[in-house]
Write a structure and sequence with these properties.
Strand content: 15-25%
Helix content: 25-40%
Bound molecules: ligand BES, manganese (II) ion, zinc ion
Largest sheet: 8 strands, mixed
Distance between the termini: 32 Å
Strand order of the largest sheet: 7-8-10-9-13-17-14-15
Shape: elongated
Number of strands: 19
Number of helices: 15
């Protein structure tokens, strides 16, 4: 999607759809009113003839407004006093959604509020909404394909908007990169292929190290390696480094992602129904990779580390068994009760390695860790678990600002004994009650007392259906926006 910022009087190209975003209850004020006059009252006639009120998400096709544009749509933005950054994004995204497959190639967006900030947010909304994963479609009928390839945002501050847009474009690129990783089928995106795609990010200025099984074995990562041992695909650990702070030696911030490229459950095999969803069990690693992409893309003034534990969990003659005991890099031993509780085993070694090697200010891990978080929070909120109130507050603030909801859940010490084992230091499941909590408590045992937060994104990494216009169905890229925002607001400069 090409983005332009244009003045109100800029000439209309052919094949342009004009989307006029309007406030609820005041639909023909400002720019919309001027357009109505130019269009001989076509907009006011369309509004008078129907039930369009300008409520959020409403779309009204204006018929017969000839001369002005090939097509005019009114898009409701809701109440003027609630028109914050996210509302701007959503309105522009809805405008795109209304005309994307209209046959027209250009979308021009007229906003009910002027200014570079608003224009830039609208552009971001369109970029996010226009994401599509169509690499494997060869026979899609032409009339179903999106046709809009360029969006013009009308603003009196076009130069300022253009100057302010690059970090938002970097964010949209990174979210798309993350969504691509999560959307790829598991026969294409196995651990080594994931690692290759991350290695290619060196072109953005990131440093990427890839550790294979031999190197991880030397480090004693028996917990992570046990998960991948039933797969013919080699497990990988990707270490992504961005040194953007003035002081390259300043203590970094760190992010760790669960990258289970496919989760069959292993010997504790999952039921067939819905198992294809487990291609997106690498959503945590996908979010961390996307975060590092945007930090480099916008040259963030921070030192940041991203660590991805990349494995495939398969049943096989060589697969790990329930009852096995593995030794993690930390030296702590783990009795495997259920081979389907594999994400925490991957994170145990990745988190331990992260704090040992980089001594970061804090660690945030992201993981599609438990089905229980979906039961607890539904599909809009990810679970937040943390041993640190300041880090939690920073995550929650960024979450609200970026529209990626988090809900904090407790880490009660008295539940920690549920993962004590009879024969090892711990076991990898704590039973059904509080399943997301005991999973988080397990990871906490590998944070070594550092400020740490865990985001269980099993509920939010994939959306079907989606009710948010900036998030098309499928891979959401959840986490990229909120972590980017937290870094920008709290840890840069
Ligand atoms: N990857 C799954 C969790 C999951 C479920 C992600 C649904 C996305 C959607 C995880 O590895 C898993 O299998 N967890 C088990 C843990 C249990 C065996 C303790 C679960 O949630 O059932
Ligand atoms: Mn599993
Ligand atoms: Zn899993």
């Amino acid at each position: 999607m090409e983005i332009e910022f244009v003045a109100a009087k800029a000439a209309l190209a052919e094949k342009t759809a004009l989307a006029v975003i309007v406030f609820e209850g005041d639909v023909l004020a400002g720019a919309a009113g001027e357009l109505d006059t130019q269009a001989g009252g076509a907009l006011s006639r369309a509004v008078a003839g129907g039930r369009f009120t300008g409520a959020k998400g409403q779309v009204l096709d204006v018929q017969g407004a000839s001369g002005a544009a090939a097509r005019i749509v009114l898009v409701g933005a809701g109440k003027a006093d609630a028109f914050d950054d996210l509302a701007v994004e959503h309105a522009a995204a809805s405008a795109y959604g209304a005309v994307k497959a209209s046959g027209l190639t250009v979308l021009r967006v007229v906003l009910p509020k002027d200014g570079a900030d608003t224009a830039v947010r609208a552009a971001l909304g369109v970029r996010l909404a226009a994401y599509r994963f169509d690499r494997y479609r060869t026979k899609e009928p032409a009339d179903k394909k999106p046709t809009v390839i360029k969006t013009q945002i009308v603003t009196s501050e076009a130069d300022a908007a253009l100057a302010a847009f690059p970090p938002y474009a970097a964010l949209a690129d990174a979210v798309a990169f993350s969504r691509d990783l999560v959307s790829e089928p598991p026969n294409v995106l196995y651990p080594e292929e994931f690692a290759r795609r991350v290695k290619a990010l060196e072109s953005l200025g990131l440093e990427v190290e890839i550790l294979g099984e031999a190197e991880m074995a030397k480090l004693g990562m028996g917990s992570l390696l046990g998960v991948g041992q039933g797969s013919i695909r080699e497990s990988q650990l990707a270490v992504i480094k961005w040194y953007g702070a003035k002081d390259k030696k300043a203590q970094p911030v760190a992010f760790v992602g669960k990258g289970v490229c496919f989760d069959t459950g292993g010997i504790s095999l999952k039921p067939a129904d819905g198992m294809e969803d487990m291609k997106w069990d690498m959503g945590g690693a996908g979010a961390v990779a996307g975060l590092m992409h945007v930090l480099a893309g916008r040259k963030a003034k921070v030192n940041a580390i991203g660590i991805l534990g990349l494995v495939e969990n398969m049943p096989d003659g060589n697969a790990q068994r329930p009852g096995d005991v593995v030794t993690s890099m930390s030296g702590q031993t783990i009795e495997i009760i259920n081979t389907d509780a594999e994400g925490r085993l991957v994170l145990a070694d990745a988190v331990w390695y992260c704090q040992q090697r980089f001594k970061p200010k804090f660690m945030v891990d992201l993981a599609t860790l438990t089905g229980a978080i979906i039961i607890a929070l539904g599909n809009d909120y990810a679970g937040l678990f943390s041993n640190n109130d300041e880090l939690s507050a920073n995550l929650l603030a960024a979450s609200g600002a970026e529209g990626e909801p988090l809900w904090r859940l407790p880490l009660p010490p008295q539940y920690d004994k549920n993962i004590d084992s009879m024969i090892a230091d711990m076991k990898n499941t704590g039973g059904r009650p509080g399943g997301s909590i005991t999973a988080a408590l397990f990871i906490q045992r590998f944070a070594n007392g550092l400020p740490w937060a865990h985001l269980d994104i099993a509920s939010t990494a994939w959306k079907k259906p989606s009710s948010v216009p900036t998030i098309p169905e499928g891979a959401t890229g959840f986490g990229v926006r909120l972590l980017n925002r937290m870094v920008a607001d709290k840890y840069e400069g």
